[in-house]
Design brief:
The complex is a heterodimer. Chain A is α+β, with helices and mostly antiparallel strands. Chain A is built from eleven helices and seven strands. The relative contact order of chain B is 0.15. The chains are: A alpha+beta, B alpha+beta.
């Protein structure tokens, strides 16, 4: 009697098991393997730096992915493939066709991502604990990255951290250029308040202006999220050293815009990015989604605390002091 | 009675001990308001780790575009100097922090120059002469913004 009952109980369990196995097998028919792109130009760096990158980054950020067997099983593989595809678009160590200045910019981005604990992704290291980076690894990357600063870039090579974007040649006919994502250049910013001033490792000097909406958002600490209509513009110049060592703004490099429109720029946290370079203010980007593959990657990971903007004034002054000095 | 008094006093003492320590309570993110003046130029002093913004009216701007950089009558300049720091959100970058001083340079309708400096306590006392500062402020050239 007992054995009959057992048999009846076992049957549904076995059936469910078979069903799951069958489902998994069926899913594998919809499992497209990752496209194996060739290695056109591998990143060049000291052996110890390469070892860290290969161990912790290459699986997603190169064409030399060495995925584990469980990464290749659907439905996990769907998520993995999507992540790898996106990771390669943003940074690909196998297609490293960069100048020395661009290489330096990429290394700073990598250092910042590692230092802030944003990369490698937590969900990745959970399944791949060997890819975790140590403080020693970060130190190695830092030393190498800082050593790149001592190599002065050629004169006409000063670029910022958003370098690898192709420049579009359109929009030259209109009075004010327009970025492919619809952000229009305006010189209104010349009348706006300066919200902060900054420099970058590329020997540039920068002044950041905000329109009234942006300034009010800063002063009231209301930038989670930034109100629609906020516009922040950053003017970038090459540093020009005077005889006494003081630095002034030299040749104009570009004007970088961030325009807040949460309905229009849904892929980039509500910000429309644009960069207008040189004296002709030619816009950067070939397609409307250029910022999705470049700008937002860093802004999203590293500047989340200040609503995805890097140069929000620091919280270091008292209101009374400023009012006295502004008199 | 003694017990009640003891308990009451203990509770009061607890409250006095619970001072909420917020060191940045009075600190704000501040944007300098130059009034009706416009941004003209910027500089960086890597020894003092300061960054300055020069503002001015139309006359001031015109004065600095001239070859001799002599301030025109009715010019008004403001040189605002900040301490800069490593950008806390990006290694490899700096950003302005504490406001250190505001220097104002004015000329009246006859071209007579007046100079004034307002410091915060954090500013070093280097005491350059007024003439040196006037010469320094008028040495700026407007930045290039196409």
């Amino acid at each position: 009697m007992d054995s009959v009952n057992k048999k009846r109980r076992v049957k549904p369990i076995a059936l469910a098991f078979l069903l799951i196995v069958g489902l998994f097998t069926a899913l594998q028919f919809f499992n497209q393997p990752l496209k194996g792109n060739p290695v056109t130009k591998k990143i060049e760096a000291p052996r110890e730096v390469l070892a860290i990158l290969e161990n912790s980054c290459f699986n997603c950020h190169s064409n030399q992915s060495n995925l584990s067997w469980y990464d290749k099983i659907a439905p996990i593989s769907w998520a993995v493939n999507k992540d790898v595809k996106r990771a390669r678009e943003i940074l690909n160590f196998s297609e490293w066709n960069y100048s020395a200045g661009e290489h330096q910019g990429k290394m700073y981005a990598i250092l910042n991502m590692m230092q802030s604990g944003k990369m490698p992704l937590h969900e990745y290291t959970l399944l791949h604990p060997s890819a975790k980076i140590t403080t020693q690894d970060i130190e190695t990357i830092r030393k190498y990255t800082l050593s790149l600063s001592s190599i002065a870039p050629p004169k006409n090579e000063l670029k910022d951290i958003h370098q690898n974007i192709e420049i579009s040649e359109n929009n030259k006919s209109s009075k004010f250029p327009v970025s492919p994502n619809g952000v229009q250049y305006t010189d209104d910013y010349k009348n706006w308040k300066v919200i902060s001033m900054s420099t970058l490792f590329d020997n540039s000097i920068r002044v950041i202006y905000g329109n009234d909406i942006a300034v009010k958002a800063i002063e009231t600490e209301n930038f989670h999220p930034w109100p629609n209509g906020s516009i922040v513009v950053k003017s970038v110049w090459k540093q020009e050293k005077l005889a006494d060592g003081e630095v002034r703004a030299g040749e104009f490099v570009n004007a970088q815009f961030m325009v807040k429109d949460s309905k229009k720029y849904t892929d980039t946290e509500g910000w429309g990015f644009a960069k207008f370079s040189g004296n002709d203010l030619h816009p950067t980007g070939k397609t409307a989604s250029f910022a999705k593959e470049s700008c937002i990657a860093c802004h999203r990971q590293l500047a989340e605390k200040t609503g995805y903007l890097f140069d929000v004034p620091m919280k270091l002054n008292t209101e009374r002091l400023i009012k006295n000095l502004q008199k | 009675m003694k017990k009640i008094l003891f308990i009451t006093l203990s509770i009061c003492a607890l409250f006095t001990a619970c001072k909420i320590d917020e060191p940045d309570k009075d600190l704000k993110r501040v944007v300098f308001d130059p009034g009706n003046l416009k941004f003209i130029s910027t500089s960086l002093n890597t020894t003092k780790e300061t960054s300055s913004a020069l503002y001015g009216n139309q006359e001031a701007w015109e004065s600095l575009t001239n070859e001799n950089n002599q301030p025109k009558p009715n010019s008004k300049f403001k040189l605002v100097t900040w301490k800069y720091h490593e950008n806390p959100q990006y290694i490899g970058g700096t950003i302005t922090g504490e406001l250190l001083s505001v220097e104002t340079l004015k000329t009246d309708k006859n071209g007579k120059i007046s100079y004034q400096i307002q410091n915060t306590s954090k500013t070093e006392n280097t005491h350059p002469t007024q003439e040196e500062r006037i010469q320094y402020i008028t040495s700026y050239k407007p930045v290039v913004r196409p």
